[in-house]
Amino acid sequence: xxxxxxxxxxxxxxxxxxxxxxxxxxxxxFIVLExxxxxxxxxxxxxxxxxxxxKPDYESTLAWTCAHIDRGIPxxxxxxxxxxxxxxxxxxxxxxxxAKDPHKLFSSPFTEEERPIVINGxxxxxxxxxxxxQIEQHLTKGFSCIKLKIxxxxxxxxxxxxxxxxxxxxxxxxxxxxxxxxxxxxxxALDKLQRLAEYELHSIEQPIMPKNWEIMAQLCSNGPLPIAxxxxxxxxxxxxxxxxxxxxxxxQYVILKPSLIGGYKGSEEWIALAEAQGIGWWVTSALESNxxxxxxxxxxxxxxxxxPQGLGTGSLFTNNIPSPLEVDAGQLFYxxxxxxPQRIIAQLCT
Length: 350
Fold this sequence. Notes:
Largest sheet: 7 strands, parallel
Oligomer: single chain
Radius of gyration: 20 Å
Helix content: 25-40%
Distance between the termini: 14 Å
């Protein structure tokens, strides 16, 4: 078996705001395996400023992985615990290599029958007019679940946007999720959650920064809104520590980004622990290209979770790799009549 990697820089169609700043581009890496005339491809979705493997030696670790591919995939996955996005890219590439169709990593009604996955519409941070435009577009396109990034503009303006949605649509028609990305200060979090709860939200992701387990536990226990852990999961590899976190905080939900938490294996560990404790969960992409998004969506489709998933990021980039993935009426489809661009894929695999 041979392996090599390739860097690819995704360009946002327009600057996209988060509580950590505005994104205009996002670098990603593809890892390609070749054996007996076949190839497999996976995406190492590094997310600068958030991934625990955002380290100076990231590319050299990718090079080392490819140079030592003869160690075997299971051994390498264990060796790469500190590099979850490389773990995930390697998992994808191995599945791709061993599949009959290198783009069909999992067989399910999603790929074989065009059965869609319900997804949320994502509203990026920005000024009030920009966010309102996004909300109106998602409502027009038929989304039944909308997720708003909050924490960048004045809180009163964010409440006004939520009020706008609720004046038109009750919670039975439109589910609203908000994501603070840890933007609230611990002392102000409960008050802000109480004000947000007036708009009958489904949940809030990561209201305060990670590593504040006791405060987060109090918010989950006494707060007026269901809380979903996101960044809180990043960097926790040991199974017993995962269990300790969930028992200590006891959140209502956890959110699984395979590129950030150790790929399929790491995500499935979180799912098993969460379900054992009665904690809900859903899957979210982390700004991967369509290569990684396809791998996440196909896996998510096998998990039998009817909640809206966070898989609507494929249309964010001007230079994304064309794929059979298509969003329609708030659902993600794998269109069988569409194909992957062989010229581009061949370029990545040579």
